[in-house]
C-alpha cells in the first residue's frame, strides 16, 4: 500500500478566495441598487461594461503570460475590481471612459505587477484616478438625483441610457447636476445654514444629501454584512470613518462660511462608505496587521477630509487610498503584533530583540 | 470554578470525535511481527542491547538509553528478535531508521516485574529512575523523555503541575476514552508526579468542555486531593503547551524557555497513566491507547495498541477500504503527518491513525495567490503574521523571517486551515525553519574552517620564516669560515707554511668546513632561545584557546585542548632544559 | 558693518559660502572622527558569506584572498562551492546584479562531499597533508594518513597530489536529522517569468 505524502494540516475550512470575492460582489448589491434608483441605469451599465472589459483583459494578459486562464478567472478578482470601478464612475459616462479605466486597472495596475496578490496599489482606484486626471469633464458630470429632477424630466430609460453611453451625446438638460461635495466646494462666502436652505440637495434631504445618503447607506449595509461574515476586520473601515468624523467635527466651526461641512454630510457623501468598506479593505494593497490597518484607515480618513476641504477635488477617496497604499509597507514595518512569549513588539527589519 | 484566560486566534474545525467513542477501548490480536524503532522520542536514539536470534520476554529491555536525553525500549510481547536493521518509520520524510523486529511467539509471557504500591514512601529520585527505566516519553506528540521533566536541578522550584487533557485536535479520542475508563489510575499517576515534584501548590488538569463524560469521570477521584479539573471552551489549538499554560495561568512562557523555567511542569494525561503503570505495577511503556478513525475504516474505536504494531495490522482489523482512503495520517488532521506506507509501526507518540475518505478530507486544491486577506493572522494563536511569513519564506529572506518571529510558530496549522487560497503555509514555515537552521549550522562550520585555514596560513608563514632564518645563519657561518680560511692562508703564505695545494691546506679547508657546519656556541644558544620562545607562544595560544573554549564547548573538545596544552608545556620544558645544559657546557668550555 | 555687507551682495554671498563651507567642513571632519570605521569591513563581510572551503577554485589561495579581490572589483561568480546562493548573498551585500556562476571555475555540487582515504592503500607520503588548507588530515611520513571528517571542507585539494589515488570524495548523505520539509512544489507559477525553462503550468496534474 502506498499513500500520498501531504503536509499538515489535512483539514481545511470550506472558505476559498472565489467565495470571498463572490461575497464581496453580493455585498455591493445594496449600493448598486441605491445608485440605480437614485441616478438611473447609468451605474448598472458602467458595471456591466467594466466587468466585460476587465474579464476580457485579464484573460488576454493571462494568455500572454502563459498562465492557466480558467484557473485564474475563477478567483473573481477581476470582476470585483471592475464592479468597484463601475460603481465609482459617474452614471452615463461615455463607454470609452469605462473601457479605458477598466483596461488600465487590470492591465497596468494589476497584471503588469504580477497579477492578483502582487499589486501595490488598489487597481480600481488607479483606474479611477487615471480617468479623473485624463478626462476631468466626463468624470465630474454627475446625474441629478431622482427626487430633484425638474418636472416632466426623468432619468433616461435603459435603451436611452445605452444610447447616451455609446453615442457620446450628453444627457438632456436638467438631468445632470452637482453633488453635495461640489456644492460645498463652490459655495464660498455662504454660511452652512444658507447652503442648506438654498440648495435642494440639502433642503430636501433626510440627513445628509439627497440621493447620496441612500447610496452611502446601501454601501454601509453591504459593508456590515461583510464585517459580520468576517471577510475583513473592523479596524480599517472604522478607523477611516472615525477619522473623517473627527476631522469634520474639528473643522466644522459651527457652520461658518469657511466650514467644509458637517460630520454627517462628510460621512454620507461621495464615496465615504464605499471607500471605507469596499476600497480600503482591499487586503492586497493595505497594511497587514490589525494595528497597521487602524493607522492605514485613519490615514485615509484624514487625507480624504484634507483633500475635500482644502484640495482641488470635491472627493478624494481614490487619491487618499493610493497615497495610503504607498505608506502601507512603511506602516507594516512599525506595527508588527506582539508575538506570544515576547515582551515587546519588533520592527520588521530588526533581527535581534533589544 | 477557576478562572481561565482566552488565547488569541484559534479555529473551530469540525470535531468528529463521536465516531470513535461509541465503543470502549478495545484490543487487537498480537501481530505476528512487531517493529520497535530505536528513536521514538526527542533526543539520542536508544542502543539495541539484544542480538538477532535472542529470545525476549514481554517487558524485557531490548534497547538502552544513550546519554541524558534518551529513553530505553522494551519488548512489547514475548518472542524472538528476528532483525535489527533500518526500516521505514513513522516520520514525515518517509525515511528509514534502525528498528528491532520481534517475531511474536503468541504466548505473550511477561518478564518478572514488580512495582511499588506505596510510592509515597519512595524517594523522588528512585521514582524518577523507575520512570526513566520504563522508557516513558511524552505521549501527547513530541515524545520528550518524561523523567527529565521531573528531574531535580530546575532553576526554580516547581509550583504548578499542569496535566494536559485538552486533546484539541479533531478526531482524536485516545485521552478522552482513557480518562473515562481509567480515571482512578490516572489520578494515582498524578499523585506520583506530585510526590516527585514535592507537592506543587497548583495541580491543574486542563480539559476542553467538549468532554463532559471525561470531566464527570475525573470529578469523584479528585475530591480532597488538591487537584483541580479546569474545563475551558473548546478551541483549536488549546492543547499546545504554551497555549494551555496561558489558558490555565494567564502567564506567557517567554520565547525560547521551557515550562520548568517558569516553575511549571506540563505532562500529557496519557503519560500519567503510563507513569502509574510503571511505578505501581512495574510495567514499562509497551502499549498505549491509539484512536483508529476515519470513514475509510468500517470500525472507528480506540485500541490498547502494542508499541511496534504495524499500522497495516491495525487497518486490517478495522475493515479498512484502501480505495476509499484519501490519505493515511498518523496523528490528527491538523498536525498529524501523512504516512507513505502502512507498514510503519505505532510508536510511543502515536495517539491516532486517521484514514479519511475522499469526502471527509479531499485532495488539496491547487494553491491560489495570497491576497493577504489576513484570515491567517486572525487564526494564529501565537499572534504572528502568517501572510508576511509566507512572502518572506517564498523570497527566502531569512532575516525578515526571524524578525517576524518565525521560530515562535508552533506549526499548529490554524493558518493553513483558514487560508482561502489553499496555500500550504505550514510547509513553507517548516521548510524555512529547516533552511535557517541549516544555514546556522553551516555558518558555524565555515567559521571553524576559516579559523583553521588562518592558523594553517600562519603556521606555514612561520615555517617559511624559520627556514629563512636558518638559511641566513648558515650563509653567515660559511662566510665567516671563508674569512678564517683566507686569514689562515694569509699567515701560511707569510710564514714557512706548506705550498699551496699541499696536504696542510686541504686539512685547513676541511677544518674550516667543519667549523662552518658546527654552529658557534652563541648561535646555538640563540637557536635554543628561539625554540623556547616558540614553545612559550604555543603554550600561550593553547591556554587562550582553552579559556575561550571552556565557556561553550563539550567535554571532549576540552580534553583535546588540554592535551595540546600539556604537550606544548612539555616541549617548553624540554627546550628550557636543553638550553640550560648548553649554557652549562659552554661555560665549562670557556673555562 | 552688517549694513555694508548687505549692500555688497557679492561680499555677502562670499561670506555666506565660506561660512557654510567652514561649517560643513567641520561637521564632516567631526563625523569622520566620531563614526570612524575600523579596518576594511567590506572584505570581512564578503569573507563571512564565502563558504570557507578554501578550495581555490576561484583562482585565489583561499576564501579571504578572493574576498579581498572582490572588494577591489573582481567578479563575484567564481565560487562553485558557494553556488548561486552565495553569489546572491554577495550581490545583495554589494548591491550589484547577481550573475550566474562562472562555469570556468567549476559547477555547483548538489551534495557536500568529504574526503576519505582508503587507508590500506595509503603509502604515507604526506603529500595530501601538505595540500590540506585546513589541516584536516592526520598522519606522519611512512605511516597511514586519515581524514578528520568533521574538519574536512570537501575542497578536494588533497586528491590531486596523492601518488596512489587512494583518496575518494564521498558525498555526505542526508539522514533523518538533516531532513527538513522541501518547499511546496504544487504551486502554480504565480510570478511571471518569460525565461526559458519556465514551462507554462497547466491544471492537469496539479490536483495530484
Keywords:
heterotrimer; A: 354 residues; mainly alpha; B: 591 residues; Rossmann fold; Helix Hairpins; six-stranded mixed beta sheet; four-stranded antiparallel beta sheet; 15 helices; 13% strand
Q: Could you characterize the architecture of this molecule?
A:
The complex is a heterotrimer of chains A (354), B (591) and C (208). With 354 residues, chain A is mostly helical. Chain A folds into 2 domains: 16-177, no CATH class; 179-334, no CATH class. Chain A has 18 helices and 2 strands. In chain A, strands 1-2 form a two-stranded antiparallel sheet. The longest helix of chain A is centred in the N-terminal third of the chain and has 23 residues, at 42-64. Chain B has a 6-stranded mixed sheet. Chain B has a 4-stranded antiparallel sheet with strand order 2-8-7-4, with no helix packed on it. In chain B, strands 11-10-9-12 form a 4-stranded parallel sheet, sandwiched between helices. Among the domains of chain B are: 121-283, Rossmann fold (3-Layer(aba) Sandwich); 375-435, no CATH class; 519-591, Orthogonal Bundle (Helix Hairpins), CATH 1.10.287. Chain C has 6 helices and 4 strands, in the order αααααβαβββ. A two-stranded antiparallel ribbon of chain C has the order 1-4. In chain C, helix 3 (41-49) packs across helix 4. Chain C is elongated. Chains in contact: A-B, A-C, B-C. At the A-B interface, helix 1 of A face strand 16, helix 8, helix 10, helix 11 and helix 12 of B.
Task: Detail the topology: elements first, then pairings.
The complex is a heterotrimer of chains A (354), B (591) and C (208).
Chain A: H1 17-27, H2 29-39, H3 42-64, H4 69-73, H5 77-88, H6 95-110, H7 123-134, H8 136-140, E1 142-143, H9 158-167, E2 176-177, H10 180-186, H11 192-198, H12 200-203, H13 212-228, H14 235-250, H15 263-267, H16 272-279, H17 290-310, H18 317-334
Helix pairs in contact in A: 1-5, 1-13, 2-13, 3-5, 3-6, 5-6, 5-7, 6-7, 7-18, 13-16, 14-16, 14-17, 17-18
Chain B: E1 26-27, E2 33-37, E3 47-48, E4 55-56, E5 61-64, E6 73-74, E7 79-88, E8 96-104, H1 124-133, H2 146-150, E9 160-164, H3 174-196, E10 202-208, H4 212-222, E11 227-232, H5 241-249, E12 264-268, H6 269-280, E13 287-293, E14 301-306, H7 311-316, E15 329-330, E16 337-338, E17 352-354, H8 375-379, H9 386-395, H10 398-403, H11 414-418, H12 425-494, H13 503-517, H14 521-550, H15 555-590
Parallel strand pairs in B: 1-14, 9-10, 9-12, 10-11, 13-17
Antiparallel strand pairs in B: 2-8, 3-5, 4-7, 5-6, 7-8, 13-14, 15-16, 15-17
Helix pairs in contact in B: 3-4, 3-6, 9-12, 12-13, 14-15
Chain C: H1 2-7, H2 9-34, H3 41-49, H4 63-71, H5 83-94, E1 113-117, H6 127-131, E2 137-138, E3 146-147, E4 167-171
Helix pairs in contact in C: 3-4
Amino acid at each position: 500500500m502506498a499513500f500520498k505524502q501531504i503536509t499538515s494540516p489535512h483539514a481545511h475550512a470550506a472558505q476559498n478566495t472565489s467565495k470571498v470575492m463572490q461575497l464581496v460582489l453580493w455585498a455591493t448589491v445594496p449600493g448598486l441598487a441605491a445608485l440605480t434608483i437614485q441616478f438611473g441605469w447609468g451605474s448598472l451599465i458602467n458595471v456591466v461594461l467594466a466587468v466585460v472589459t476587465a474579464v476580457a483583459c485579464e484573460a488576454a494578459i493571462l494568455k500572454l503570460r502563459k498562465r492557466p486562464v480558467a484557473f485564474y478567472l475563477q478567483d473573481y478578482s477581476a470582476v470585483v475590481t471592475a464592479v468597484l470601478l463601475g460603481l465609482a464612475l459617474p452614471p452615463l459616462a461615455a463607454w470609452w471612459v469605462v473601457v479605458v479605466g477598466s483596461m488600465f486597472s487590470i492591465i497596468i495596475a494589476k497584471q503588469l505587477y504580477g497579477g492578483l496578490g502582487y499589486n501595490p496599489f488598489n487597481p480600481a482606484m488607479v483606474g479611477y484616478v487615471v480617468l479623473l486626471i485624463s478626462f476631468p469633464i466626463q468624470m465630474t458630470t454627475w446625474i441629478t438625483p431622482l427626487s430633484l429632477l425638474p418636472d416632466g424630466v426623468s432619468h433616461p430609460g435603459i435603451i436611452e441610457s445605452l444610447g447616451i453611453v455609446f453615442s457620446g451625446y450628453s444627457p438632456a438638460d436638467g438631468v445632470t447636476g452637482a453633488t453635495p461635495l461640489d456644492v460645498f466646494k463652490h459655495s464660498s462666502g455662504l454660511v452652512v445654514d444658507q447652503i442648506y436652505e438654498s440648495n435642494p440637495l440639502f433642503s430636501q434631504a433626510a440627513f445628509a444629501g439627497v440621493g447620496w445618503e441612500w447610496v452611502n447607506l446601501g454601501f454601509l449595509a453591504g459593508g456590515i454584512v461583510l464585517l459580520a461574515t468576517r471577510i475583513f476586520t473592523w479596524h480599517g473601515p472604522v478607523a477611516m470613518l472615525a477619522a473623517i468624523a473627527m476631522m469634520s467635527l474639528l473643522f466644522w466651526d459651527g457652520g461658518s462660511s469657511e466650514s467644509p461641512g458637517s460630520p454627517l454630510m462628510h460621512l454620507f457623501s461621495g464615496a465615504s462608505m464605499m471607500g471605507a468598506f469596499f476600497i480600503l479593505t482591499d487586503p492586497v494593497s493595505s497594511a497587514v496587521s490589525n494595528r497597521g490597518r487602524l493607522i492605514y484607515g485613519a490615514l485615509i480618513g484624514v487625507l480624504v477630509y484634507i483633500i475635500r476641504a482644502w484640495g482641488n477635488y470635491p472627493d478624494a477617496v481614490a487619491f487618499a487610498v493610493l497615497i495610503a497604499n504607498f505608506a502601507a509597507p512603511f506602516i507594516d514595518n512599525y506595527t508588527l503584533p506582539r508575538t506570544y512569549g515576547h515582551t515587546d513588539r519588533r520592527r520588521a527589519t530588526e533581527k535581534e530583540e533589544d | 470554578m477557576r478562572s481561565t484566560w482566552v488565547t488569541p486566534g484559534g479555529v473551530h474545525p469540525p470535531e468528529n470525535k463521536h465516531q470513535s467513542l461509541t465503543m470502549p477501548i478495545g484490543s487487537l490480536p498480537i501481530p505476528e511481527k512487531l517493529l520497535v524503532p530505536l528513536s521514538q522520542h526527542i533526543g539520542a536514539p536508544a542502543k539495541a542491547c539484544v542480538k538477532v536470534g535472542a529470545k525476549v520476554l514481554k517487558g524485557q529491555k531490548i534497547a538502552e538509553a544513550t546519554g541524558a536525553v534518551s529513553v530505553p525500549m522494551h519488548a512489547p510481547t514475548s518472542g524472538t528478535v528476528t532483525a535489527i536493521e533500518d526500516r521505514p518509520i513513522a516520520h514525515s520524510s518517509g525515511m528509514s531508521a534502525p528498528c528491532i523486529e520481534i517475531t511474536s511467539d503468541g504466548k505473550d509471557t511477561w518478564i518478572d516485574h514488580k512495582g511499588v504500591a506505596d510510592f509515597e514512601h519512595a524517594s523522588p529520585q528512585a521514582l524518577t529512575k523507575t520512570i526513566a527505566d520504563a522508557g516513558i516519553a511524552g505521549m501527547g506528540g513530541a515524545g520528550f523523555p518524561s523523567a527529565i521533566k521531573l528531574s531535580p536541578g530546575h532553576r526554580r522550584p516547581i509550583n504548578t503541575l499542569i496535566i494536559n487533557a485538552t486533546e484539541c485536535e479533531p478526531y482524536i479520542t485516545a485521552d478522552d476514552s482513557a480518562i473515562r475508563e481509567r480515571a482512578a489510575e490516572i489520578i494515582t499517576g498524578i499523585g506520583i508526579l506530585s510526590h516527585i515534584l514535592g507537592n506543587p501548590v497548583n495541580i491543574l488538569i486542563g480539559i476542553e468542555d467538549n468532554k463532559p463524560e471525561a470531566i464527570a469521570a475525573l470529578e469523584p477521584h479528585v475530591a480532597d486531593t488538591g487537584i483541580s479539573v479546569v474545563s475551558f471552551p473548546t478551541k483549536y489549538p488549546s492543547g499546545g503547551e504554551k497555549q494551555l499554560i496561558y489558558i490555565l495561568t494567564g502567564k506567557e512562557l517567554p520565547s525560547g524557555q521551557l515550562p520548568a523555567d517558569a516553575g511549571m511542569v506540563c505532562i500529557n494525561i496519557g503519560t500519567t497513566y503510563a507513569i502509574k503503570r510503571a511505578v505501581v505495577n512495574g510495567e514499562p511503556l509497551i502499549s498505549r491507547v491509539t484512536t483508529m478513525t476515519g470513514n475509510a475504516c468500517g470500525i472507528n474505536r480506540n485500541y490498547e495498541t502494542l508499541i511496534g504494531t504495524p499500522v497495516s495490522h491495525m487497518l486490517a482489523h478495522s475493515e479498512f477500504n484502501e480505495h476509499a482512503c484519501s490519505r493515511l495520517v498518523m496523528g490528527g488532521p491538523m498536525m498529524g503527518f501523512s504516512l507513505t506506507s502502512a507498514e510503519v509501526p505505532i510508536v510511543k507518540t502515536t495517539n491516532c491513525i486517521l484514514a479519511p475518505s475522499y469526502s471527509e478530507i479531499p485532495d488539496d486544491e491547487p494553491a491560489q495567490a495570497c491576497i493577504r486577506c489576513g484570515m491567517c493572522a486572525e487564526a494564529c494563536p501565537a499572534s504572528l503574521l502568517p501572510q508576511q511569513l509566507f512572502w518572506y519564506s517564498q523570497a527566502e529572506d531569512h532575516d525578515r523571517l526571524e524578525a517576524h518571529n518565525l521560530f515562535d510558530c508552533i506549526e499548529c496549522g490554524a493558518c493553513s486551515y483558514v487560508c482561502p487560497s489553499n496555500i500550504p503555509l505550514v510547509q513553507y514555515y517548516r521548510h524555512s525553519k529547516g533552511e535557517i537552521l541549516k544555514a546556522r549550522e553551516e555558518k558555524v562550520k565555515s567559521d571553524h574552517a576559516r579559523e583553521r585555514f588562518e592558523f594553517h596560513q600562519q603556521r606555514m608563514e612561520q615555517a617559511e620564516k624559520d627556514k629563512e632564518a636558518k638559511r641566513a645563519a648558515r650563509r653567515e657561518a660559511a662566510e665567516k669560515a671563508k674569512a678564517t680560511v683566507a686569514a689562515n692562508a694569509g699567515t701560511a703564505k707569510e710564514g714557512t707554511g706548506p705550498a699551496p695545494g699541499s696536504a696542510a691546506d686541504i686539512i685547513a679547508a676541511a677544518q674550516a668546513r667543519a667549523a662552518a657546519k658546527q654552529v658557534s656556541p652563541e648561535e646555538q644558544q640563540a637557536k635554543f632561545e628561539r625554540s623556547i620562545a616558540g614553545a612559550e607562544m604555543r603554550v600561550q595560544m593553547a591556554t587562550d584557546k582553552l579559556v575561550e573554549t571552556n565557556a561553550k564547548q563539550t567535554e571532549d573538545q576540552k580534553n583535546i585542548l588540554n592535551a595540546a596544552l600539556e604537550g606544548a608545556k612539555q616541549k617548553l620544558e624540554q627546550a628550557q632544559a636543553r638550553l640550560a645544559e648548553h649554557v652549562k657546557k659552554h661555560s665549562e668550555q670557556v673555562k | 558693518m552688517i549694513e555694508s555687507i548687505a549692500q555688497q551682495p557679492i561680499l555677502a554671498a562670499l561670506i555666506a559660502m565660506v561660512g557654510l563651507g567652514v561649517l560643513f567642513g567641520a561637521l564632516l571632519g567631526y563625523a569622520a572622527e566620531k563614526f570612524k570605521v575600523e579596518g576594511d569591513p567590506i572584505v570581512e563581510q564578503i569573507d563571512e558569506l564565502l563558504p570557507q572551503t578554501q578550495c581555490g577554485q576561484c583562482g585565489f589561495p583561499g576564501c579571504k584572498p578572493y574576498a579581498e579581490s572582490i572588494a577591489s572589483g573582481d567578479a563575484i561568480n567564481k565560487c562553485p562551492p558557494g553556488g548561486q546562493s552565495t553569489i546572491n548573498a554577495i550581490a545583495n551585500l554589494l548591491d550589484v546584479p547577481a550573475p550566474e556562476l562562472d562555469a570556468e571555475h567549476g559547477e555547483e555540487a548538489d551534495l557536500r562531499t568529504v574526503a576519505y582515504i582508503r587507508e590500506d592503500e595509503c603509502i604515507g607520503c604526506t603529500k595530501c597533508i601538505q595540500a590540506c588548507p585546513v589541516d584536516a588530515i592526520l598522519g606522519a611520513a611512512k605511516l597511514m594518513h586519515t581524514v578528520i571528517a568533521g574538519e574536512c571542507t570537501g575542497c578536494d585539494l588533497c586528491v590531486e597530489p596523492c601518488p596512489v589515488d587512494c583518496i575518494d570524495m564521498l558525498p555526505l548523505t542526508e539522514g533523518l536529522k538533516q531532513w527538513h520539509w522541501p518547499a511546496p512544489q504544487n504551486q502554480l507559477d504565480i510570478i511571471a517569468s518569460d525565461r526559458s525553462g519556465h514551462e507554462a503550468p497547466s491544471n492537469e496534474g496539479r490536483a495530484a
